[in-house]
Write a sequence for this structure.
């Protein structure tokens, strides 16, 4: 097993790690122990960009190579590698956003996808300056979808930023020359810059990286969120349960894993059909239990209360229960290992996207027509697989926790008594929140995001940091796998308020909310940007003046690297729980942890110790309050 002293703080996970050992199957932690970490890769100075390489830079200044064959310095190599991570992260989130655009373009009264939130459709249409009068819902929906798609490849470089973006922030980006021209263009342009013989300046590469990352946060992710809300409904507060204990002994268990909400919405809908319920009965099951994993879980839990089976490092553990009939996936964060793992159990592993085919998995392409039929086919196969369950091999951990989630910005503003129909009303609607921050009842707001990683004890840093922050009256907004960690560890219940400081506790009591709000999946970090921008506009300052912070304690994905960059580019100081692969580039480190303040009013911090990290965040928030003249 891995070199970590403790692999997880999650009791359900511990239970399943034991079972995996008994069953003789491999998990991510086992494979982690077989890996030999290469210092060059770890510090970012290994370059494989052209075929004269790989080239490496020696960490010792007067011994070994100090430049690649082409002459690229350590800083250039580090910056190019980082830039490529940003481009990849942006492409994943934004291509997800693009898929949702096509879903909206394909929506109709008799189609697989229908419009659910017409108010949000109208509001987005108005922002796009699309006339709404006299248009049917679907005519408008298709126009909005096309306009959203323009943001991916606008030939003139025109993009539609959300109205929540403060004008001062946009001006800062203009001054730096980093306003995105369109999402695809920034990705392509950044990839172009990183090829051999293009950019040879770390600073310029990092600026281009920020530009691309901005297109991810304020465009691609934001489009994914807004259009998903239009199609599937803007989330409202609801109750769910989280952890492997949500699997049912006597039901067909189906886990939806991945990212885009389209597939999961169709499966959830199909599972509600009487014919499916009857089919389940006919194979001896008491019902169909649909659960989610990773960001897909966040999407369907926020909109339907679908139960959450777990976060990133739970994906293999769910199979090990022996109680899962099918793991159905679309894109991103899916271990290819699942294909081998299911050979030891009865679980069907079903891929559905041409972008994420996995050898050994069953593939049912969802494609772009007849998707509901495909969803039904997948579901039928899963139900029939119940007969193959080996009941003597099943062990479902008991652990599961109640969680309240579904905090869209609309939900938050409505809960505090505001209106959300127009931008003006949304800016006015955050007043109660601003008042609480001004009078110190809430000291600040922190967005905590990102994954699980085998580099850290699963969920440990998430839970420690959140507990430390809420105890200091800092409201925590969580997305992605952190949000699930919080849910699994009793931090999203009404009773979690007991862990909060007196001020935050009183707010939780008054509003009936937990001190940690679940804002959704990782593309929904756009919701955190939105509320930050609304508060900034309400106060009349830029985002960097506000007592906010971003944290990614257990991040592992390229997407999280991109997120960190757009959060800093938005003016929010960001803490990472482990060092990204940049240590080999002193100039890159200097820019990201220092010079970025001059550019953007925010910087990166790296702190592996969760309690220290929380302490630093509180100190920084206190400084920000002081600068605003707040106690
Ligand atoms: Fe993936 Fe989005 Fe990370 Fe979780 S948090 S491991 S990226 S599922 Ni986005
Ligand atoms: Fe080496 Fe330069 Fe080629 Fe990278 S681009 S592999 S540093 S020669």
């Amino acid at each position: 097993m891995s070199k970590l002293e403790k692999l997880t703080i999650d009791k359900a996970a511990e239970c399943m790690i034991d079972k995996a050992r008994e069953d003789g199957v491999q998990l991510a932690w086992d494979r982690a122990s077989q890996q030999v970490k290469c210092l060059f890769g770890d510090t970012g100075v290994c370059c494989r960009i052209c075929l004269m390489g790989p080239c490496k830079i020696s960490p010792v200044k007067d011994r070994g190579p100090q430049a690649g064959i082409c002459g690229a310095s350590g800083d250039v190599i580090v910056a190019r590698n980082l830039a490529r991570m940003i481009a990849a992260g942006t492409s994943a989130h934004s291509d997800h956003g693009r898929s949702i655009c096509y879903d909206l373009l394909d929506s109709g009264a008799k189609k697989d996808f229908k419009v659910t939130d017409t108010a949000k459709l109208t509001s987005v249409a108005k922002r796009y300056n699309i006339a709404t009068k006299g248009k049917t819902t679907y005519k408008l929906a298709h126009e909005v979808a096309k306009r959203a798609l323009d943001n991916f490849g606008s030939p003139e470089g025109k993009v539609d930023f959300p109205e929540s973006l403060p004008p001062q922030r946009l001006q800062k980006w203009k001054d730096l020359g980093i306003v995105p021209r369109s999402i695809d263009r920034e990705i392509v342009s950044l990839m172009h810059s990183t090829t051999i013989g293009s950019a040879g300046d770390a600073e310029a590469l990092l600026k281009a990286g920020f530009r691309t990352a901005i297109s991810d946060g304020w465009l691609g992710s934001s489009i994914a969120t807004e259009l998903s809300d239009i199609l599937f409904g803007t989330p409202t507060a609801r109750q769910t349960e989280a952890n492997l204990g949500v699997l049912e002994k006597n039901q067909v268990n189906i886990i939806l894993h991945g990212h885009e909400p389209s597939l999961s919405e169709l499966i959830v809908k199909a599972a509600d059909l009487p014919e499916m319920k009857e089919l389940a009965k006919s194979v001896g099951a008491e019902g169909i239990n649909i659960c989610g994993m990773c960001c897909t879980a966040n999407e369907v839990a926020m909109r339907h209360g679908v139960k959450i089976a777990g976060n990133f490092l739970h994906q293999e553990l769910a199979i090990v229960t022996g109680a899962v009939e099918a793991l159905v996936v679309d894109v991103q964060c899916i271990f290819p290992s699942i294909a081998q793992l299911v050979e030891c159990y009865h679980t069907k592993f079903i891929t559905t996207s041409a972008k994420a085919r996995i050898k050994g998995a069953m593939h049912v392409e969802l494609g772009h027509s007849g998707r509901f039929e495909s969803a039904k086919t997948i579901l039928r196969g899963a139900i029939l697989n119940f007969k193959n369950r080996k009941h003597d091999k099943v062990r479902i951990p008991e652990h599961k926790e109640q969680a309240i989630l579904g905090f869209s910005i609309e939900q938050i503003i409505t809960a505090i008594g505001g209106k959300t129909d127009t931008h003006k009303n949304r800016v006015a609607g955050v007043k109660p929140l601003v008042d609480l921050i001004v009078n110190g009842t809430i000291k600040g707001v922190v967005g905590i995001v990102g994954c699980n990683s085998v580099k850290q004890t699963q969920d440990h840093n998430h839970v420690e940091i959140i507990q430390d922050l809420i105890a200091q009256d800092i409201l925590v907004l969580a997305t992605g796998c952190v949000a699930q960690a919080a849910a699994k560890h009793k931090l999203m219940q009404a009773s979690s308020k007991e862990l909060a400081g007196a001020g935050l506790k009183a707010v939780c009591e008054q509003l009936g909310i937990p001190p940690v709000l679940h804002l959704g999946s990782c593309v929904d970090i756009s919701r955190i940007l939105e509320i930050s921008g609304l508060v900034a506009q309400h106060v009349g300052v830029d985002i960097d003046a506000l007592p906010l912070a971003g944290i990614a304690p257990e991040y592992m994905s390229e997407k999280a690297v991109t997120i960190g960059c757009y959060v800093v580019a938005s003016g929010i100081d960001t803490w990472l729980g482990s060092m990204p692969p940049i240590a080999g580039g002193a100039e890159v480190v200097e820019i990201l942890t220092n010079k970025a303040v001059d550019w953007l009013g925010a910087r990166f911090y790296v702190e592996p110790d969760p309690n220290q990290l929380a302490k630093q965040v509180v100190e920084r928030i206190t400084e920000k309050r002081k600068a605003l003249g707040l106690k």
